[in-house]
Specification:
The complex is a heterodimer of chains A (111) and B (112).
Chain A: E1 3-7, E2 10-13, E3 19-26, E4 32-38, E5 45-52, E6 55-58, E7 64-70, E8 73-78, E9 87-94, E10 101-102, E11 106-110
Chain B: E1 4-5, E2 10-14, E3 19-25, E4 32-38, E5 45-51, E6 56-59, E7 62-67, E8 72-77, E9 86-93, E10 101-102, E11 106-111
Classes of the chains: A mainly beta (111), B mainly beta (112).
Chain lengths: 111, 112
Amino acid sequence: SQTIHQWPATLVQPVGSPLSLECTVEGTSNPNLYWYRQAAGRGLQLLFYSVGIGQISSEVPQNLSASRPQDRQFILSSKKLLLSDSGFYLCAWRPSYGEQFFGPGTRLTVL
Amino acid sequence: DQQVKQNSPSLSVQEGRISILNCDYTNSMFDYFLWYKKYPAEGPTFLISISSIKDKNEDGRFTVFLNKSAKHLSLHIVPSQPGDSAVYFCAATDQGAQKLVFGQGTRLTINP
């Protein structure tokens, strides 16, 4: 069966510090991968998605970036965090069509 | 341009009664629709889906109805239970798309 992992579960970072969130998927090959952010009391905002290694599509211009160095690994990064980057970050995977499955999420607080 | 809309940010229902969550979409190319349930500080979990070739899909207490002419879908939960209290997201896609389009969510509260 397929599983998706995200770490860390929670993170507190100062403004201006770098960020690296990692997501890995097991039990599937060539999944579509996604990064979402949910700000407090808001919906799910799609940040990036990837349909293959090295292929990244950006949905929202911001100071975040994403990379997919391996088939089942998706990384969300920032060189300098802003206060507005605080939120709940979710990784998800999906086969080429059908249901999408989410990871447990990372709570990021930027102080 | 919000292609998927959940116009009710919140809904309160008595335990044991029916909960009806609504979702509207604008893109006539959408042919697959999904509902997710989300608890605080957790990832959304998939509940039920429906293809545009159907107008109803049922799974236990959960039923999704699709009205293509009205571009409207709804999720019925019956009977509602306290554990159903969560935020519910509807989502839509089409076969050529690589991503789901989500609504803004509806917070469902089941009162004892």
